[in-house]
Amino acid sequence: MGRKKGSTARLFARYAVASLVPVLLLGLVLATSFRREANDRALAEAHTEAKLIAQTGIEPALSGSSLADGLSAHERAGLRRVVSEIIGRGDVIRLRVRDLEGRVVFSDDGSGFGAGPDDDALKAARGHARTLLTPLNSDGNDAGNTGTDTVEVYLPLAAGPDLHRVGVLEIYLPYDPINRDVASGLHRLYLELGVGLLVLYLGLFAITASVSGVLRREAALNAFLAEHDVLTELPNRSLFRRRAASAIAAAQRGEHPTAMAIVDLDRFKDVNDTLGHHSGDQLLTEIARRLAAHMRPGDTVARLGGDEFGLIIRALDDAEPVLWRLLEIIDREVEISGLPVSVQASIGFVSAPEDGTDVDELMQRADVAMYAAKAQHAGVTRYDSSLDHYDAASLALVSELRRGIDNDELVLHYQPQASPGDRTVRAIEALVRWQHPEHGFLMPDQFLPLAEQTDVIEKLTTWVVRSALAELKSFPHGQDDLRVAVNVSARTIGRPSFATEVIAILEELELPGTRLKIEVTETALMADPERAALVLSRLADAGVGISLDDFGRGQTSLGYLSALPLDELKIDRGFVTGMLDNPTHAAIVRSILELGHNLGLRVVAEGVETEAVLEHLIDVGCDVVQGFLLGRPMPSAALAAWMWDAQPSVTPGV
Ligand code: C2E
Ligand code: CA
Ligand code: CA
Questions:
Q1: Of 68, 232, 243, 540, which is least packed with CB atoms within 10 Å of its CB?
Q2: Is the pTM here over 0.85, yes or no?
């Protein structure tokens, strides 16, 4: 504030000086020209006065005969009379009469006789009057004290009845009275000029100041807009970064740690989509207001973009309680267009200098923590290097997955599972792929691991179950007992409504549960064993087969296994593919077969890539094989054609 005041005063002074300079220059030019004009007028007046003296006093005293011969006594007496009168009045300082050669023939004070002719006098003799302002006795041919300013006039003199030129009048008039006259006129003029210039100056100054005021306000507005968000008026990303940098620097100087948090609204897009952008804007404005109202002075709330806010909380050892409180404040209902709306948010945060000292790195880490908070519905999460797999790009992909499912961008490929001896296809495993509009054809490992952290996996699983069953139904005749296997992840298998949902789909498509097989991994089951067991038994009751996928990788207790309604164990392909070169793997495959058979389960070996492995699996009594040797995962049409080739009993089409 103080700085602002100081700079305004400086600016003001600068405008004042800047507009004063041209006004002063103008004043100087005008004053000089006034002065010159006044002088000229004064000289003209002096000239007139001299002329009057010549015409009324001097010329009548002359007879008209040549002055070169000297004055007659009569003439001299006449001149003396006239001159003593005017000199006595003080109107004239000195008066001389010269002949046409410029020689002095009369001088009131006796000066000038015998001196050479004067240039000005000679000019006057030729008819050119001269008026000059000089100090007295400054002429080369004059002696005596110089000093007093006088007006020196040279006038041709005419006399005689025909008024012919007879000589020259040289007359010195006192300058003082003329000057006083001129000066008093000038004073008034200067006063008027001064007032005029002052008015001009004030006008100019007012204009400059107001124009610059407008410019300054505009510049200030532009500066504000460059660093603030228009909707919420909060600082924008660039100001946030600047403030973060200085807060981090302070934290590094050992003052106090600084927390930097990223707040992202959950499902804000839904509000925008269902209530419209205007409502979305209202919601953002309200949340911005709440956040700003609950921060301490000196802390920063910024809008980083979309539904993302950034916080800088300085000098705080533990920011987590504060952030939980903010989360609660965001959570409170907002009334928008008469509707109560509530949004949740996820907050990720870092603490500087502990989590880093570079703004970009810290922002990226806070972002990672925020994504992790979102994925795990954790509310507030502090960054930790173990969260690094939540990188923003793949998370953005996950959020696109929801849209991708609705837009039919997902496709299922099917891989056959067959009896090892005659290679009859017993089942097909549905494996999902994503034909992404920008990133191309994506394999499950590129989007599933993260999708599994969010509820989008539910939507995906439902889509897979429905699509796989629908495609199975449209499969070639003669395949009425073909089963489709669908992979189900931990999150889904722990959700009781999943069983209900699957059963509803089966009913809707008029397919018996026996046409479906659920593949679930040991690890998925272990996440919530009781609930998983419940869901599995409901599915098993409906005839759905249950297969334990990637078996051998986890540490399932045998007691637990026997309590589950399983049909099948799938030996993890890590043990199968290279089993012939790895005796341990071969031993594991044998024990799983033994264990499975003891429990009355079918055992499937996946990852069969060579004839040698297939032969070996037949030898050890494996029930079903799956792998590139038999067939790679392929689109349903390709699978139908493949089955037609490989299994002549199948009729393609319909
Ligand atoms: P998984 O359930 O173990 O699926 C088998 C994977 O092994 C498939 O990879 C398949 O292409 C590959 N595979 C099959 N035979 C061979 C072989 O002979 N050699 C080798 N090296 N690999 C073979 P894919 O399709 O990339 O799927 C990877 C994983 O993605 C699956 O592993 C499964 O865990 C998951 N997944 C695929 N689709 C879905 C789905 O619809 N839902 C869920 N929840 N998970 C899915
Ligand atoms: Ca599988
Ligand atoms: Ca597997």
A1: 68
A2: no
